[in-house]
Amino acid sequence: MNELFRQTIHLLMGVVGAAIVATVQPRTAFIFFGFVLFAAFLILDIMTRGYDLPILESLVDEAERTGRVPIKGGIAFTIGALLSYAVFGPLLAAAGIVTLGVLDSVATVAGTRIGSRRVYRKKSLEGTVAGIAAAIVALCIYIPFLTGIAVSPALALLAAAAAGLVEMFSPVDDNLLIPPAVCSVLFLAGW
């Protein structure tokens, strides 16, 4: 497993996923989510039944952590994004999706490279702070670029901090919970 490759995919899923949900028609977005879930379950089913998919298996081996269910993180990512889109709409969902992609990937890379203060399980304070900082930048720059609607730095800090806490302490896959958490904070703040 190559953690940098894995986190690059995570980051791209967040950036591209946010762009898709913010710019396409709702029916197209739901078709996109449905196709991603269908493809992920299909690949998971094929792999767990023992069929050989040489090229795909090589990619999964590079992107998946050892001992984990193949593609589970991508499925959780898509379900969290889909739930956020269905409940909060495209603008808030885009903010939640890009926050997930940016925060989680930056926190993991920074935590493994410079993290020395472990807070919970293998999560480091340095990784979490780096992820929150990157998410603030994404919310203040990328979301207005996509949507034309500004996010204040204070609101970006609040949403990113909520995502950072979920990323650090979630007892379940944080890919499920970060987008709805960010959407909830932004919604309750009136964005």
Automatic annotation (TrEMBL):
Residue stretches in coiled coil: none
GO molecular function annotations of the record: nucleotidyltransferase activity
Segments traversing the membrane: 7-24, 30-48, 127-145
Alphabetical keyword list: Membrane, Nucleotidyltransferase, Transferase, Transmembrane, Transmembrane helix
Name of the featured protein: Phosphatidate cytidylyltransferase
Organism of provenance: Methanoculleus frigidifontis
